[in-house]
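User: For a benchmark we're assembling, each entry needs the component sequences followed by a predicted structure for the full assembly. Here are entry 17's components. Please fill in the structure.
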Amino acid sequence: MIIGLIGFGKVSQNLVKLIQSNNIKFITSKENRSQYTIEAINRLNVETLPTFKDVADISDILISANSPFASLEVAEKYGKCSNGIYLDLNNISPETTFEIEKHVSNLVDGAIIGKIDSDNPTMYISGNDADKLLFLNDYLNVKVISDKIGDVAILKLLRSSYTKTLTAILIESYEIAKNHNLEDEFFDVISLTEGQDFKVKSMSRIKNTLNNSKRKREELTEIINSFSGQDLVMVKAALEKFNRL
Ligand SMILES: NC(=O)c1ccc[n+]([C@@H]2O[C@H](COP(=O)([O-])OP(=O)(O)OC[C@H]3O[C@@H](n4cnc5c(N)ncnc54)[C@H](OP(=O)(O)O)[C@@H]3O)[C@@H](O)[C@H]2O)c1
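Assistant: Structure for entry 17:
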């Protein structure tokens, strides 16, 4: 079986490391790629073809893991060349996923959840052909959500909406605790119900949000636009909080 990769960043590199079988060959292309990507391809010794079109032509599974911004153009260019399954792993909205579906037959909507360089990530997938990827369970956790394109994209947004909204209230509570000189006690009392690692996880979330507040605001705005018909009081409040950081 041949798995073609369009994009050779952290996601693809981890898949190549995890999926090791004599029956599976990964291929990609160095066409128009940066030095960073070319070095990664060389390091992992993945076979290359001159163009991504060549890759799409012969892949049984074509994986698109490049960037949310590039995902639609990549699907337009290579979706039709591929007769196999087209697995989109980009962090994209349901709307973009539906746009991609117009250009691609055999689309599977996918997401890798959790730390990308983990030894045991979980990949959620949906779509008519999702079941055909269950064999990947030999190498990572694969969960089929449904046969509907868009379901995984919705779950991705819901997860993002939940974690970011929670981080907003966490930042606010932590600020109040600091003003009262009660930071440690604040984490201690919540750890009683949320688990011993609550402080470590919380500090990591706060730091990550403060360092990437622009991207976090953009992601919250995307959630608000995607679920515009819903009553999104909490998510909108989180965005307002992030605007003040
Ligand atoms: N990292 C995560 O934790 C994570 C988790 C789940 C999902 N995702 C999603 O998965 C996708 C890939 O993430 P990543 O972390 O692997 O990204 P990354 O490390 O930034 O790598 C992106 C790769 O895609 C290539 N690329 C960009 N545009 C391309 C195009 N038009 N044609 C072919 N290759 C292209 C880049 O090549 P150049 O170096 O030449 O630009 C690079 O090799 C993103 O959409 C991201 O949102 C990421």
